[in-house]
Design brief:
Elements: E1 4-8, E2 11-15, E3 20-26, H1 41-53, E4 58-62, H2 75-92, E5 97-100, H3 104-113, E6 117-120, H4 129-137, E7 141-144, H5 162-179, E8 187-190, H6 199-207, E9 220-221, H7 227-233, H8 246-262, E10 266-269, H9 272-287, H10 291-297
Parallel strand pairs: 3-4, 3-10, 4-5, 5-6, 6-7, 7-8, 9-10
Antiparallel strand pairs: 1-2
């Protein structure tokens, strides 16, 4: 089994033998699923600690919504939302904290506050200085594929061969990162479920996630509560389902299980506790000894 080691400071996370869970902590008033729920400092810190207890391996803190058609917030506002939370969590929990941002200065301030991973949905395209920050602090980075911007990405996205096109995108993004001084050993790729994709595009990506293995990079995937799940489970696609209802969580766990079996190394989710149970079962299935089949036959 191919394994990878993410290094940040004196700490390491092994990827491959065990699926890792990234817990989503949106310190925003308008995220699609939990906007406003953890917007206050106390609520955000309490939720981050709860996710750590429930089995998260990484806490991903974001201060700007990237839901479809969302507008950006200022650098100053984003910093004011995330830095106090990161400072507290980095002291209080033993797992790494990542910063979900496309702004270089936000990432820099977050790392100084204790974050040790950069999660950039733009893959350094929105702010090229982000690569310089990642190289300077030698932190792991998550590079995600997105067609357009959060404001435009869901306006009739079209692909010829979606897997091939996204693989080409990542090849270019990795080359760009390496040119800026980011070590390949620090890079994680994320195909960007829900970011400029139709329902069918998302399903194809999850089913064919194994095809990204040829890039020889760890893969993160974030299907949690996404619109494609709500569309499939909804009786009327014109009327969105509340992302927090139990059916959507069940759908999320089905997508999580499929993604792990298809090759995902890290799963980014809202509900860490349920995902921890799914991960435990699917990892056990993957690790089952195939030699027992022949013993039973004999």
């Amino acid at each position: 089994m191919k394994t990878y080691r993410l290094s940040f400071g004196s700490c390491q996370i092994e990827l491959g033998r065990q699926t890792r869970i990234m817990g989503i902590l949106n310190v925003t008033p308008d995220s699609f699923s939990d906007g406003g729920e953890f917007f206050s400092f106390d609520d955000a810190v309490a939720h981050g600690k709860k996710m750590a207890v429930n089995g998260a391996d990484i806490i991903d803190v974001g201060g700007e919504s990237t839901r479809p058609f969302s507008a950006p917030v200022t650098e100053k506002e984003e910093i004011s939302r995330v830095i106090p939370v990161i400072e507290n969590l980095s002291r209080e929990i033993s797992i790494p904290v990542s910063i979900d941002t496309t702004k270089a200065e936000v990432a820099r301030q977050a790392i100084k506050a204790g974050a040790s991973i950069i999660n950039d949905i733009s893959s350094f395209r929105f702010n090229p200085e982000m690569a310089d920050v990642a190289a300077e602090y030698e932190v792991p980075v998550i590079l995600m594929h997105m067609k357009g911007t959060p404001e435009t990405m869901q306006v009739s996205p079209v692909y010829g061969n979606i897997v091939k096109e996204i693989k080409t995108f990542f090849n270019d993004a990795v080359v760009n990162a390496e040119r800026k001084g980011v070590s390949r050993s620090k890079i994680i790729i994320d195909p960007g479920i829900g970011f400029g994709k139709t329902v069918q595009h998302n399903l194809i990506l999850i089913r064919h996630l194994h095809e990204f293995k040829s890039l020889d990079l760890p893969v993160l995937i974030g299907p949690s509560r996404k619109r494609f799940i709500r569309n499939i489970l909804g009786k009327n696609n014109d009327k969105d389902i509340n992302p927090t209802v139990s059916e959507i969580e069940t759908g999320t766990q089905a997508a999580v299980a499929s993604a792990i079996l298809s090759g995902a190394h890290i799963i980014r989710v809202h509900d860490v506790k349920n995902t921890a149970a799914t991960v435990k079962i699917i990892d056990a299935i993957k690790a089952a000894d195939p030699s027992l089949i022949f013993r039973d036959i004999i």
